[in-house]
Amino acid sequence: MQRKISLSPLLVSVAILVAGAACGNAGATKSETVDGVEWNITVNKVVEFNDTAVGVGTDYSYTVADTARVNALLKDVPHCGNVTIGWTVPGPEGSIWLVAYDNEPLLSEKVKVTKVSYIPSCYGGFQVAFRFPDAEKWAAITAGNIGQRLAVIVNGQLMSAPQVNTEITSGHCSVSLPEDAIHKFLPGIDIEKLR
User: Fold this and answer.
1) Which of 59, 93, 128, 187 is deepest in the core (most CB within 10 A)?
2) 77 within 8 A of 49, measured Cβ to Cβ
């Protein structure tokens, strides 16, 4: 069942973080260096989408069970051809976010994954760090979008749409992954070693 939410809980659930920063208590964090894994990352500007007539929008929280019903409603909702509407990776408690974003990416780069951390208090539990090769471009994008949301897409899968709170000059970024998605995005990682 959907429920209307304020923007802040959505933004707390997943965040763009400087590598090494974490949700919750850093003392509980276990990390492993990742070698040989590259991801294609695309970053797009998020746009607001709400159709009050059918009760579908990006400021609602959904469960995985809601997706079929919402997808059926979206078929009848007209939207601009230059916007994609998609679902994020589900969280461990079954929450999932509907996100609308511009089709024209702000940034599209191949990145090397550097580290995966298990953070029990963080959304999804697993935080995966990487660095954009063009740190200056990432800094300009984050500086120009403070207070706005950006869709982070990994290998074609929408991962999250966090709010940018500050300019990130280091090129670092991270995404949260639920446990059932770890092996799809990080083959060879021993989850039990991280616990």
Assistant:
1) 128
2) no
